[in-house]
Write a structure and sequence with these properties.
GO terms for molecular function: sequence-specific DNA binding. The chain is an all-alpha fold and 189 residues long. It folds into 2 domains: 1-106, Up-down Bundle (Methane Monooxygenase Hydroxylase, Chain G, domain 1); 108-189, Methane Monooxygenase Hydroxylase, Chain G, domain 1. Helix content is 85%, strand content 0%.
Length: 189
């Protein structure tokens, strides 16, 4: 008989339960992140504030789990990125700035991935604002996206997935440029 088999089995069950908690907490965090973003796009700040507070609580829970079970970080990485994306979107639209990595409170990879994904949501928000004839917002968004793009080029990522995300930022800039062009072209009519 395997020595200590009962304690080994109990530890395995603990790890399985922890894995499930990490995944489920991550799912809740992802949903709340999307709710923050959609609320910001709709200018529903009351809902955005509520979702942001809920999102922070889930982030704390997830970080606590990862501190205890760091080998499950890979199960939480996307959720940290989603949180960063939503928090950056919120801060940019509420306070007019990109928050620092310290303000966001995630690691460098989650922050940079979230920042680059933020450009897609910013482009969506800029499109909504163009529909409302808010060209100034779209121009500010474009300038912000260009700054992010230049900062990401500066990073000289070696990782292929990160380099693809830099291309994603460039594509978001191009799409927004086209929308701005057509909006300004038709403005005189």
């Amino acid at each position: 008989m395997l020595p200590n088999r009962d304690s080994i089995k109990a530890k395995l069950r603990e790890y399985e339960d922890a894995r499930d908690k990490v995944i489920n907490t991550g799912i809740r965090l992802n949903r709340l992140s999307k709710s923050v973003i959609y609320s910001v796009i709709r200018n529903d700040w009351e809902a955005a504030d509520k979702y942001l507070n809920d999102m922070r609580r889930e982030l704390e829970s997830l970080m606590s789990l990862i501190k205890q079970y760091p080998f499950y970080y890979d199960k939480a990485a996307v959720s940290f990125q989603e949180y960063a994306e939503a928090y950056i979107m919120y801060e940019f639209n509420k306070n007019g700035k990109i928050p620092t990595i310290e303000e966001v409170g995630v690691d460098e990879l989650a922050y940079l991935n979230g920042l680059m994904e933020f450009t897609g949501e910013l482009s969506r928000k800029a499109t909504e604002e163009l529909i409302r004839d808010n060209l100034d917002y779209a121009l500010k968004a474009k300038e912000t996206m260009e700054d992010i793009y230049l900062d990401m080029l500066y990073m000289e990522f070696r990782d292929f997935e990160m380099r693809k995300k830099v291309d994603y930022v460039a594509n978001n800039i191009n799409w927004l440029n086209e929308k701005i062009f057509y909006k300004t072209l038709n403005k005189g009519r």
